[in-house]
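Figure 6 in text form: structure in, sequence out.
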């Protein structure tokens, strides 16, 4: 079994900062990409940032220069530092990992349970 557990969400005022963390545990053979998605009420889940196992990061346009994704391969963790938060960043943030649980299976996607981020104006 593989689990992704997020932490670090909460309520913050506009212009403030939050740091989200996610730890993958369980039967893990290798992890390809890790990332963060978000889903606001009434909207579809969307990509925020993704990072490869080599450390190459990709951000969507609306978070560039404000959010930073980082990863610790030894600990199977991925963090998202969010600065200059805006009310439109309010959403449930989900951790994602594309990984192989054992050597004889293909990579598949795993999701955390989500953590609420609320930015007040």
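Output sequence:
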């Amino acid at each position: 079994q593989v689990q992704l557990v997020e932490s670090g969400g909460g309520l913050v005022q506009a212009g403030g900062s939050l740091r989200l963390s996610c730890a993958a545990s369980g039967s893990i053979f290798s992890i390809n990409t890790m990332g963060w998605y978000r889903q606001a009420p009434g909207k579809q889940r969307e990509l925020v940032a993704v990072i490869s196992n080599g450390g190459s990061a990709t951000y969507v346009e609306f978070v560039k220069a404000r959010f930073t994704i980082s990863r610790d391969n030894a600990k199977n963790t991925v963090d998202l530092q969010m600065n200059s938060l805006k009310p439109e960043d309010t959403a449930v943030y989900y951790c994602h990992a594309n990984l192989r649980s054992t050597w004889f299976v293909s990579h598949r996607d795993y999701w955390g349970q989500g953590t609420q981020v609320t930015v007040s104006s």
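Caption detail: Residues 98 and 108 are 5 Å apart (CA to CA).
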